[in-house]
Amino acid sequence: MTQRVIHIIREDRRCTIDEVSMLVGINHGTCHKILTEDLKMQHVASMVVPRLLSVDQKQQRLDVCLDLKENAANDPSFLSNVITGDETSVYAYDPENKTQLSQWKSPESPRPKKAR
Fold first, then answer.
1. Could you tell me how far CA 47 lies from the centroid of its own chain?
2. pLDDT tens digit string along 27-60?
3. CA-CA distance, 101 to 43, in Å (whole number)?
4. Residues 6+ apart with CB under 8 A from 31
5. Partners of residue 44 on adjacent β-strands
């Protein structure tokens, strides 16, 4: 049973205990015991990281900031042309809730990450 549970979890770490127990054909409590006590796994939610940027995105951001800094230094009226806004009015739609993002992890695996 333990090998079948390991195989199912490795295929999809976001499986719930109910889904695994149904696929293996064991009850909920036995499946929970195999995952937590025998395999030492934990069901954890993704750690929210403000922004996961690639190297190119970081470089582009740096270039834009340096360009803005240079424009502000060369043109005294530059900052009067900048439009600002309240960032609370800008939002992104994320259809996944915290439960859907939870996944099983073993003690040696890193915590899952989710970009905000």
1. 6
2. 999 999 999 999 999 888 766 555 667 788 889 9
3. 10
4. 5, 17, 20, 21, 24
5. 103
